[in-house]
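Structure tokens please, single chain.
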Amino acid sequence: MRTAFLIFVLVHTLLHLFGFVKVFELSIIKKITQPVSKPLGLVWLLVYK
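Here you go.
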């Protein structure tokens, strides 16, 4: 059960990082197609931590 939870948390963390990276165009991420504002991108990063 701990392993499943750890995997879930790691995947969730990656999703937050992907959102932040897309907003600030640090890399090209084509899977996130909806526009995201920069303030919301910062929220994604803060929620990650």
